[in-house]
Design goal:
The chain is an all-alpha fold and 127 residues long. The chain has a single domain, classed as 3 helical TM bundles of succinate and fumarate reductases (Up-down Bundle). The protein is 76% helix and 0% strand. It contains four helices and no strands. α2 packs across α3. The protein is extended, with a radius of gyration of 21 Å.
Length: 127
């Protein structure tokens, strides 16, 4: 028989009672950075195709890539590359069966975030 009180039961976990954990945030951030890197690579491919097509079309693409928007995209891409690499190393460490306890997983999550920021700053200074 159908449950007639279905609508009276609380939803679990609901956004009002569920606190996102650092491990879930870093996992979602890994997926976001991967997709952002795809978009940045599309911008680079567009720039290269414009260079091979026409000088006027290349001028438009070059203005976008070398303008504030392109610089912002590539700065974000530098951070995304470093974060994505560090998160990948963290997952390789997890795959070995180590670092799966909550305190270690949170330390590794903060290490990925902090390490990617530091490596981005070093890269920007060098470039």
């Amino acid at each position: 028989m159908a449950d007639v009180n279905r609508g009276n039961r609380p939803l679990s976990p609901h956004l009002q009672i569920y606190r996102p954990q650092l491990t879930s945030i870093t996992s979602i951030l890994t997926r976001i950075t991967g997709n952002a890197l795809i978009l940045a690579s599309i911008l680079v491919v567009w720039w290269l195709l414009a260079a091979s097509y026409d000088a006027d079309y290349f001028a438009v693409a070059d203005a976008v890539v070398t303008g504030w928007f392109g610089k912002l995209v590539f700065l974000g891409s530098i951070w995304a590359i470093w974060y994505h690499m560090l998160a990948g190393l963290r997952h390789l460490y997890y795959d070995s069966g180590r670092g799966l306890d909550i305190p270690t997983a949170e330390r590794l999550g903060w290490a990925c975030i902090g390490g990617s920021v530091v490596l981005t700053l070093i890269t920007v200074v060098i470039l």
